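Posted in: Protein Modeling Q&A

I'm a second-year student putting together a small comparison for a lab meeting, and my supervisor asked me to include a predicted structure for Glyoxalase. I've never done this before, so apologies if this is the wrong subforum. The sequence is pasted below exactly as I got it from our records. If anyone can share the structure token output, I'd also love a short note on what stands out.
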Amino acid sequence: MQPRISMITLGVRDLEASVRFYEHGLGLPRMDSPPEVAFFTLNGSWLALYGREALAEDAGIAPDGSGFAGIAIAHNVKSEPAVDEVMEQAAAAGARLVRAPRKVFWGGYSGYFADPDGYLWEVAHNPLFWIGPKDEDA
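Accepted answer (user: helix_wrangler)
Welcome! Here is the predicted structure, written out as tokens:
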């Protein structure tokens, strides 16, 4: 297997609301797609939003998951102020702030928000590790 993730698909309860959150709230660029799914381009991969029940059916599992799903999606940024900016943008878009940004044990600065379906996003600055374009802040 090649070391890459090509797409992350989130099973969502309300596709319209989730599309508004990611496209208009967070500003992710949406691709043309059929009405039952939404695709967003990321740097080197894609984010897909699909009905939770339909995604569970596709995988052959029950759709009634509850509690912590054991996953968090990370968005690394170039600076501590950029962490604060992304967290503020997410909150303005309707995210629930789970943990305010702060200095963390591994030497960086990070916070967590939950999207409309409760998926956790960590927004982090790691002073020793940057994987984005040199001129990009967020």
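A couple of things worth pointing out for your meeting: Strands lie at 7-12, 30-31, 37-41, 46-51, 72-76, 96-103, 109-114, 120-125. The mean pLDDT is 87.
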